Amino acid sequence: MKKNLLFSLLVSFLVCLQLVAVNKDSLNIQTQLSLYGFENPNNDVTFSAGARIVPQIDYLRDYAGDRRISAEVSGNFSLNAGLFPHEVAKDLDPEFSARLYRVWIRFSTQRNEIRAGLQQLNFGSASLLRPLQWFDGIDPTDPLRMTNGVWGILDRIYFKNNSTLWLWGLYGNKDKRIWDSNNPRTDLPDFGFRFQQPVSQGEMALSVNNRAVEINSGTPFENRFQETKIGLDGKWDVGPGLWFEDSYTVTSQESPFSGGWNLMTVGADLTPSDCGGISFTVEHLLSSNFSTDNDFSQTMNLSALSVTWPINMFNRLTGIALYNWESGFWFRYLTLSADFDRSSFYLIGFWNSSISTVVLPIGSGSFSGYGLQLMCVVHF
Known about the structure:
This protein has 380 residues and is mainly beta. The chain contains one helix and 19 strands. It has an 18-stranded antiparallel beta barrel. The protein is globular.
C-alpha cells in the first residue's frame, strides 16, 4: 500500500511538472523495447519467445548553488510464451508480468546527493564473480544488465580528497539475492554504509550492512535473527587492472548457524596493445563456510574468464567461461552484438553442464545444456 501511494504521488508530481514546465525544467520520456527468441533442446521449455517493454520518465531541474532535483519513474512489462514438447496442453501458454522498475526522487549538490524510492544499489570492484552483490541481480551474460531495485533511502557524501561515504536505509524488500542463504524480513529495515578512500594508483572501500532475516518462514522451525555483512574491496591500475573483493557474513547469537560465511574474489584485466583491442578479464572466487572451530570443510572454488573483441565500430564478440573446481561444472557463453544509434542485436550461444542443482552468479537455469538466443533491442 505504501509503495503504491509513493508511486502515485511521484507520477502525479511528474505530470504536474510537465504542465508547468519552464526553461529550467527538463522532462524526458523514453522507452526500451526488447524482443527475443530462445531455443534450448535440453530444457523443459525447448523454445520460447517474448517481449519486454520498459517505459521511463525522467525529470531534472537545476537550481542556483549547484543544487538539482531529479526523478525517475519506470515500469517493467513482459510477455513470454514457451513450447513444452511433453505437455501439449501447455504449448505456447503465455505469461504476462508487470512491476515497477524504478521510482525515485533525488536531491543533489556538489558534495552530496540523497535519493529515495525504488532504486538500483550496487558497488564493488569485481565484474564477474561479485561477493559484494548484496542488493542487485546483475548477470554478466545479460546484454541489458537488468536488475530489480530496492526500496530505501541512499545518501552519498563526496569529500574534497575524493573519498566517498555512502549511507543507506532499506525497507520492504523481499527479493533473495544470489549469495543470500537466508530470507530477508520485510517488516524490519536494513541499515548500512560504505566508505571509499583513494590510495596509491587505486582505491579501497569498507562496506557494512545489517538486516533482520529468517529461515523456514511459516514452519514450526522458524528462526529469526540478525545478519551482518562486512565487505572490503580494492582496485588498482598498475598496467593491468588488479582488484580484490571480500564479503564476510556473520549472524547473531539467536542464529542456528555458528561461525560465518566468507566470499573472496581476486581478479585482473588487461588489453594488450598489439591484440587489436581485445581485452581479457579473469577472476577467481573462494567461498568458505566457517564453524566455531574454524573448520574449512565446506568450500567452493569458481574461476571465470571474459574475452571481448571489438570487431569494428558496430560489432563486438564477447565470450565468458566459468569453471567450478569441486563439481567440474562448465559454463560457456558467446555473444555477437551489433550496436546502432537506436537499436542493438544480439546472437547468443551457450554450451553448459546442467545447473539445476548448482547456484551460480552467472547465467540461469534457461542456459543449461546448449542452445541459442536471438535478441533485438530498440530505444525510442
